[in-house]
Amino acid sequence: MSSQYLPQKAITFPFWILFLISLSTPHAIAGRGASHFPNVPLINQDGETVHFYDDLIKDKVVVVNFIFTHCAESCPLETSRLRMVQDLLGDRMGNDIFFYSITIDPAKDTPDVLKNYTEKFGIGPGWSFLTGKESDITLLRKKFGLYLEEIQSADSQDHNLSVMLGNDKTGQWIKRSPFDHPKLLANIVGYRLFGGTVPRTHAKSYAQAPEAPRFSHGESLYRSRCASCHTIGQGDTIGPDLIDVTERRTPTWLSRWLLEPDKMLEEKDPIAMALFTQYSEIQMPNMHLTPEDVEALTQYMRQQSQAKNSQIN
């Protein structure tokens, strides 16, 4: 894929999105570098030993987050969302932009496990998954300000879901949510961290801004929880195409699947197990929806399926 996001040019997207971005200024942290980041050894998914500062981030523009592969809730969504950013950045990945996902459970996440995880999610060049000594990884989490002391315990796997976007050469680091709009994250990584600024001479008046779209509750849920792994009428991606899913599954089954997919897999529900096997054994995350959320989401999927079918017919 050709690069769409060159350092010399701002990414363009609707003015209302720019307005929303202006209301959500990234948390910037300046002046880190070799004196701050430890040069601890880590092992990537290919079994190669690398040193965190010298080999991974020195003089580079990078994205760093912390996950674990058997996470049944946030981590699959986080990885899927960042894969969308990877796709937007195109062939700049591995050339002037690098992603690093570091496990917080090195006892289970061996290089082979990480390699399998990258294959499941279709991870491309320029994105490494890393393991190492637990003490070294904890040190890195603390240096990034992503270690939550108050929730750590012997059996805790809770962790800070923030992602760090940084340019080591300039010392600029920005903390963001991985669930931000992928175009926003791509714009920060591919443009802002390279020193880009939006020329004020071309700025528009807020009076010219079109009204921001008003999403229904169901559409908001779909965009934030489902769209990174599914489409409606555009084919399978990480997960199955959801077109006509409200007709293909019974309301009882679909509602429970959306409410507690983890329990259905534990119970080895035959449909759940078939989906798990068919889609690279990527577990459907528990998104902690309410019954009201499920009703809104299924209504939206039904409406979108009907709209797609009417276009075809």
Instruction: Give the full name of the CATH homologous superfamily of the largest domain.
Output: Glutaredoxin
Number of strands: 8
Question: Runs with pLDDT <50, length 5+?
Answer: 1-28, 150-156
Tell me the number of structural domains. Answer: 2
Strand order of the largest sheet: 1-8-7-4-5-6-2-3
Strand content: 5-15%
CATH class group of the largest domain? Alpha Beta
Question: Distance between termini?
Answer: 33 Å
Overall pLDDT level: 83
- What pattern of helices and strands is seen along the backbone? HEEEHEHEHEHEEHHHHHHH
Q: Rough shape?
A: globular
Structural class: alpha+beta
The major pleated sheet works out as:
8 strands, mixed
How much helicity do the residues have? 25-40%
**Cα radius of gyration in angstroms:** 21 Å
Written description of the protein model:
38% of the residues lie in helices and 13% in strands. It has an 8-stranded mixed β-sheet, with helices on both faces. By secondary structure, the protein is α+β, with helices and mostly antiparallel strands. Helix 3 (74-89) crosses helix 6 and helix 9 (251-259) crosses helix 12. The radius of gyration is 21 Å and the shape is globular. It has 2 domains: 15-202, Glutaredoxin (3-Layer(aba) Sandwich); 217-312, Cytochrome c-like domain (Cytochrome Bc1 Complex, Chain D, domain 2). A hairpin with a 4-residue loop joins strand 2 and strand 3 (49-51). It has helices at 15-22, 52-57, 74-89, 111-121, 134-143, 182-190, 217-226, 245-248, 251-259, 261-266, 270-278, 291-312, and strands spanning 27-30, 41-44, 49-51, 61-67, 97-103, 127-131, 163-167, 172-176. It contains 12 helices and 8 strands.
